[in-house]
Write a structure and sequence with these properties.
456 residues; 84% helix
Length: 456
């Protein structure tokens, strides 16, 4: 007896088609993320030229702002599979969008409170008074930016769930362009116009978030199947918001765990020595640049997997994740080759210290393995998002990165930076095993439960 359409594995041609569709959807998202990173570097460079105290205050605020925005973005990814489930039914999609906006407001408010507390966090951490005095209105401005960005994320998550990544790129690049121009003008001034210094950077980031949010919501209302539909905020539906939060909040917690443990690794590297700390920071930046591709690819797989979730086609779900994994491996391999070939000029952008550069060069093989494993675990993690089962990812991260945090300082004392990155590689390998195992287990339950239409 032949296999049914729901169990037959896809042909090689269909598999290649999935990879091509994944690339087409992921590329605009990746370019958007890279552009945003470049804008952050412009802020740092402009403030560094303005005043050292301003740069120190900016770094202190960003130490809270960055994980806050990343956590909110993680929570909002939980909206994507609910959107993808109704990509052909605008009447069912409207309440999902409204409740997603409420989730964005709630999580954004929490993030904004954390950023507002930067002066207190700095005071409790023993930050010099000179740095605290330089903060001025920056925490308040960036707190507002977190809230605005959260509302914007509700729209971009909807667009990603609908497979409209080009509209996400349009919103992101509009905000990034505004951030770069305004930072250059507002921080140091131009011509006869005096600069605002550090508050100018805050204003630039707030306006950038506002522009991105407006463009994203405009695109959602004008260029999707929601065109002409009333998308006003309306009254929140607590049960529906909690359903979205049930997928999104474990993702937010996972992001927090990763940021916290990376902070522990930075401390462990700093204990080795100044050169090791600098080399570790550069290596982390290079990893982030390549890992961003896996995040974009993982998001792109969610709408591609939605039709298979509706029909309970487990093989189709797994084929979608495999296509994402192949695409991520290809992207990381390409970026890794670029880094290997251009390692000298690339590293010269980060440092002119030959000792730090040599340490990073020695780390490159480990660094590339860390990226590969991190990319694989991320794609399978997004597979769990697609089937709305994100608690296993949280458990896997809590265990693997918890052990890494405990081992980081002793290992760095014994074996320096190489031991630290080897430990990170081992943690990522364990994460791959966990994420793959959890995805196959939980996706298999969809078939076993006999409830394909599964959870919409």
């Amino acid at each position: 007896m032949g296999l049914s359409p729901q169990t037959a594995p896809p042909s090689g041609a269909a598999d290649r088609g999935l990879v091509r569709r994944t690339i087409a959807a992921a590329l605009p998202l990746y370019l958007t993320m890279i552009a945003s990173s470049v804008a952050g570097l412009v802020d740092t460079a402009v403030l560094g030229r303005h005043a050292t105290a301003s740069l120190a205050a900016f770094a202190l605020t960003m130490a809270v702002y960055t994980p806050a925005t990343a956590t909110v973005a993680g929570a909002m990814r939980g909206v994507m599979p609910f959107v993808a489930a109704h990509d052909d039914d605008p009447d069912a999609l409207v309440p999902v969008v409204r409740n997603g906006t409420w989730l964005g407001i709630l999580t954004g408010t929490l993030g904004a409170v954390a950023v507002c507390a930067v002066p207190l966090i700095g005071l409790a951490s023993g930050v010099p008074q000179e740095t605290l005095s330089a903060l001025g209105p920056l925490p308040a401005l960036l707190a507002a930016s977190v809230l605005v960005a959260a509302v914007g994320n509700s729209a971009t998550s909807t667009l990603v769930g609908l497979g409209r990544s080009r509209l996400v790129m349009r919103a992101g690049t509009a905000g990034t362009a505004a951030a770069v121009v305004l930072s250059l003008v507002l921080v140091n001034g131009v011509g006869p116009i005096d600069g605002l210094g550090l508050p100018g950077a805050g204003v630039a980031m707030l306006v950038s978030s506002l522009i991105s949010a407006v463009v994203a919501h405009w695109g959602l209302r004008r260029s999707t199947l929601l065109a002409g539909r009333p998308l006003g905020l309306g009254r929140p539906h607590p049960r529906a918001v909690l359903e979205l939060a049930g997928v999104g909040l474990p993702l937010a917690a996972t992001v927090l765990i990763k940021f916290a443990v990376l902070g522990v690794l930075a401390v462990a590297a700093a204990r080795v020595g100044t050169v090791a700390a600098a080399a570790h920071s550069i290596a982390v930046s290079l990893v982030a640049l390549m890992f961003t591709a896996a995040v974009a690819i993982g998001q792109a797989t969610i709408p591609l997997m939605a039709p298979h979730l509706k029909t309970g086609n487990v093989q189709g779900l797994r084929a979608g994740v495999r296509a994402g994994a192949k695409t991520a491996l290809g992207a990381v391999a390409l970026l890794g080759c670029v880094l290997a070939v251009l390692r000298e000029p690339v590293l010269s952008l980060f440092t002119h210290d030959p000792a730090a550069r040599d340490q990073v060069l020695a780390l490159i093989p480990l660094l590339l393995l860390v990226v590969v494993t991190d990319a694989l675990q991320a794609v399978f993690g997004f597979g769990l998002i697609a089937i709305r089962n994100t608690v296993p990812s949280l458990v896997a991260f809590a265990v693997c990165y918890g052990l890494l945090a405990l081992a980081a300082v002793p290992l760095s004392a014994l074996g320096g930076l190489n031991a630290l990155w080897l430990a990170l590689l081992v943690a990522n390998v364990l994460l791959v095993v966990g994420q793959v195992g959890f995805f196959h287990q939980r996706s298999g339950r969809l078939a076993a439960s006999g409830t394909p239409a599964a959870r919409t």
